[in-house]
Design a protein that fits this description.
The complex is a heterotrimer of chains A (about 80), B (about 675) and C (about 140). With about 675 residues, chain B is α/β, with parallel strands linked by helices. Chain B has 30 helices and twelve strands. The chains are: A alpha+beta (about 80), B alpha/beta (about 675), C mainly alpha (about 140).
């Protein structure tokens, strides 16, 4: 079992599972509405050329998310 | 005529909602604003089986919370206007996420039809959706469509007709589990007995759920109802109890909805082919590459601007020439009989209208390019790549489109800011749009720079563009920090798969947008042109006559001259004379008019204006002048759209801050120049 | 495949250097910063294609995008030149119209980006077909 980390610290190319979504109600709700809820699988596809935002694959669709929001998503690495 | 049906069209961004809207309504739509807000409202009409169907395009949303104005608009429309049927568009390649909206709509108690769009793309990705099963599980009709090819639209129309006589609803689609369901029932029975008016407006189950979730908007509205407080308190207590069991209730509810959705999707989606790499993914590896991404993006933007500017040139000149000859002709035939009327027509109206129409080809071309890039899906990538830069200045990534458009003309730039969700962000972006140096200012730079700076002219002009970007970002940052405070919710954005743009959609979009530009800008510029004309040929001593437009000496005696003389002292530190000041004044109407005004005032033909400028300006004051033109007030047309988008207060604010900024900047230039001994 | 990518890359690469330095002027390369930007970008994309030669998918994708940009830039340049020519006709005041048009056309079309558009086109078709087979 690996330690939980923030999505903003995740590594490119690895797959993760969402454990918890934190943050102010508005941001948290936005994140969850996009399907990023506990149990969801996320794969980190790449970083933008300027290193922010991050492109992640969630539920089969690539999303762009800023690190500032990604920090609210707590994930754990999966195989 | 059997009557009118009210139909609401809902869907998340990128599911093909506008394509379906166009397919249903034939692309003709009335566009305006939802009352009281700056969000766009689109309504179209279609005739179906003798009925008149009013199709209201709801904003693109992912769910129905109270956290965003788009969602509230959609929600409140459904609650208050009670459409007869709601069609929600669900994307077969984004099933889970787009079903979330469908489920949220079902809970509202609407009569729902699901249009399952992009089934061809799903098939391309290697999976198939069992439509019959989906229908059975959702308990509402599901119509598979491929909107861009027009497939499924007729069936959709038939289902719409059927749904009027045979509505299908399913508000209890999600089972939230025992303790919550019990709480919901208790709230519902309380509502029915003690606050029956509530049940009239809202579906009881939905209301109960929202109260338990502590939905801001619902709570506020219920408070106003008799015995509403009791209901709210009851919900609050229940929530506390429930949260001790399940944790944050809102999170729990979202989870449960998704659990239900996943359950459905699992039963309904079948993989028929192993997933290989898709074209979009492949392209993205290059276009979003660490090293290649940035140069490719900047190159694309450059190519787009280069193409648009230059290709529209002949068209612009064509329109210009047409209007000039029209004006000359009018003057010719009316000159002797009614010189005043001739002038009004020629110099006032025709010139005024001409100024607007002259830009239309360029704006249309820009719009076409932007529409193509949007439909292809590349715009999202541009935003992705450049977001960091904008983020640094606390601006949203989507601001890139208005800022780029602003280089053509500020009016469409302001109009395009509608896509920015957050109100604070939108206001900020709109107010910095005028800082983008629009194409109308280019002739001014060209004339002055080539006259004064000779070989270094290109450098001077490029510096204007660079400064424009810098100012826009910095001022945007200041606005966001001090005035429009609020988190720039960067927004999680989908990167849609690359699609071939459909010429029909592109043309419809462009036509709509160009039309809006013409109506908004056109009327204002025309009014301004006539006003300016009036001020030029009349003066404190009475009517001077149209000759004033040709003769600077006479102009001096007019109102315009008076204003010029009054304002001129302000500009002495910059070394600008009365003529230059007047030119600035006329520039308020449309920036490129500055050139023709200067020509007239200095008594020069436009070709020999260069020498005249040399006589009236020093290199330093000329540069300061260029900066002033870059920064000072937006042209009346831009002013008008700013007002219509975010209100008179902000329009006025824009004028004020820009004047101050322009003045300080040119003053600073003079100051620094003098210190450096450039004189 | 890679050879062609390499050759085009080198050609683009040399044109890119000269694009920025107006001193070394070969007639076909205008001293225009925007032009240099486009050329450089295409050049490095092509080089990337060669760089990724082990990963077929990525290599072909780079070639596709690079040549795609090459075609686009050639096409845009031709369109722009035609437009400018048209503009000359519309705004002619005096002087040798035909002569000016020829000058404009000559300057606008006999340029590196247009000429390189042809091999770019070929490369594009090849990469496109290869990718289709792959997918």
């Amino acid at each position: 079992m690996t330690d939980p980390i923030k999505l903003s610290e995740a590594e490119v190319g690895k797959a993760y599972e969402v454990i918890k979504v934190e943050g102010p109600a508005l941001i948290r709700r936005r994140i969850m509405d996009m399907g990023i809820i506990p149990g969801a699988k996320i794969k980190v596809l790449r970083l933008a050329p300027l290193l922010d935002p991050i492109e992640i694959l969630v539920r089969g669709v690539p999303l762009s998310i800023r690190r500032a929001e990604a920090q609210y998503i707590i994930v754990r690495e999966t195989s | 005529m059997k009557g009118t049906i009210k139909l609401a069209l809902a869907g998340s961004p990128n599911v093909g909602k506008s394509t379906i809207f166009n397919a249903l309504t034939g692309g003709r739509a009335w566009v305006g604003n939802w009352p009281g807000v700056t969000v766009e409202k689109k309504v179209g009409v279609m005739k179906l089986n003798g009925y008149k169907v009013e199709v209201v395009d709801l904003p693109g949303i992912y769910s129905l919370t109270a956290y965003s104005i788009d969602e509230l608009i959609a929600r409140n429309f459904i609650i208050e206007e009670r459409p007869d049927v709601v069609v929600v568009i669900v994307s077969a390649i984004n099933l889970e996420r787009s079903l979330y909206l469908a489920v949220s709509l079902l809970e509202l108690g609407v009569n729902l039809i699901v249009a399952l769009n992009m089934v061809d793309l799903a098939e391309r990705e290697g999976y198939v959706v069992d439509v019959k099963k989906l229908e059975a599980l959702l308990r509402v009709p599901v119509v598979p469509t491929i909107a861009i090819k027009g497939i499924g639209i007729d069936k959709l129309k038939n289902i719409i007709i059927q749904s009027i006589s045979n509505p299908r609803r399913n508000p209890a689609i999600v089972d939230y589990g025992d303790p919550i369901e019990k709480a919901i029932s208790r709230l519902c029975s309380f509502m029915k007995t003690h606050t029956p008016e509530v049940v009239h407006t809202y579906h009881p189950r939905w209301l109960a759920i929202k109260l338990l979730e502590n939905d801001r908007d619902v709570v506020e509205k219920v408070k106003l109802l008799p015995k509403g407080d009791l209901l709210i308190n009851m919900a609050n207590e229940m929530r506390k109890e429930l949260e001790s069991v399940v944790g944050d209730l809102e999170v729990y509810m979202v989870n449960q909805r998704y659990a239900k959705i996943l359950e459905i999707v699992d039963k309904v989606v079948r993989r028929v082919r192993v997933k290989g790499i898709s074209v979009s993914e492949l392209l993205d590896t290059v276009l979003l590459d660490k090293f290649l991404g940035l140069p490719i993006t900047i190159t694309s933007i450059y190519l787009m601007l280069y193409f648009a500017y230059n290709v529209s040139l002949p068209l612009v000149d064509l329109v210009d020439a047409l209007f000039s000859s029209l004006a000359d002709y009018t003057r010719l035939i009316l000159q002797d009989k009614a010189p005043l009327l001739a002038s009004l027509l020629a110099d006032g109206i025709i010139t005024g209208v001409g100024t607007v129409l002259v830009f239309t080809p360029m704006i249309a071309i820009f719009y076409i390019l932007v529409a193509i890039l949007e439909d292809v899906g590349y715009m999202a990538r541009v935003v992705f790549v450049l977001d960091k830069v904008l983020h640094r200045f606390m601006l949203p990534g989507k601001a890139i489109v208005p800022l780029i458009l602003g280089f053509a003309c500020n009016v469409p730039a302001v109009l395009s800011a509608r896509t920015i969700e957050d109100e604070n962000d939108r206001k900020t972006v709109i107010m910095i749009c005028p800082l983008s140096t629009c194409s109308a200012r280019l002739p001014v730079y060209l004339i002055i720079a080539s006259a004064i700076f000779g070989t270094y002219a290109a450098l001077a002009i490029t510096s204007m563009y660079v400064l424009s970007i810098i100012f826009a970002l910095v001022i945007g940052f200041l606005f966001k920090s001090f005035i429009f405070k609020g988190p720039s919710i960067g927004f999680i954005m989908e990167l849609p798969p690359y699609l071939m743009p459909q010429s029909r959609t592109v043309l419809i979009k462009t036509w709509e947008r160009t039309k809006r530009f013409l109506t908004k800008a056109g009327t204002v510029i025309l009014a301004a042109a006539i006003l300016v004309w009036l001020l030029s040929i009349t003066g404190p001593k009475g009517l001077i006559g149209p000759e004033a437009l040709e003769d600077p000496a006479l102009l001096k005696a007019s109102w315009v001259g008076a204003i010029g003389r009054a304002l001129q002292p302000i500009f002495t530190p910059m070394g600008w004379d009365w003529g230059a000041t007047i030119a600035l004044f006329f520039g308020f109407m449309a920036k490129e008019v500055v050139v023709s005004t200067m020509a007239m005032v200095y008594g020069a033909e436009e070709t020999s204006l260069g020498r005249a400028i040399l006589a009236h300006f020093s290199p330093l004051s000329a540069y300061a002048y260029m900066i002033f033109v870059l920064l000072y007030v937006p042209c009346v047309a831009t002013m008008a759209v700013i007002r219509s988008e975010i209100g008179l207060k902000y329009a006025v604010l824009t004028i004020m801050y820009q004047m101050v900024l322009a003045y300080l900047a040119s003053l600073a230039v003079m100051f620094i120049g003098m210190i450096l001994g450039l004189g | 495949m890679y050879l062609i990518a390499g050759i085009v890359a080198i050609v683009n690469w040399s044109s890119m250097l000269l694009g920025i330095e107006p001193i070394l002027s070969i007639g076909y390369i205008p001293p225009d910063a925007g032009f240099a930007l486009v050329m450089i970008t295409i050049g490095i994309t092509m080089i990337a294609a060669a760089y990724f030669r082990d990963n077929i998918a990525k290599c072909l994708a780079c070639a596709l995008v690079g040549s795609g940009l090459g075609i686009a830039s050639a096409f845009i340049q031709i369109a722009v030149t035609l437009a400018v020519g048209l503009d000359v006709i519309i705004t002619w005041e005096e002087g040798d119209v035909l002569g000016t048009i020829f000058d404009v056309l000559r300057e606008g079309i006999i340029r590196a980006d247009v000429v390189l558009g042809l091999p770019a086109l070929v490369l594009f078709m090849m990469s496109y077909r290869a990718l289709k087979r792959l997918l």
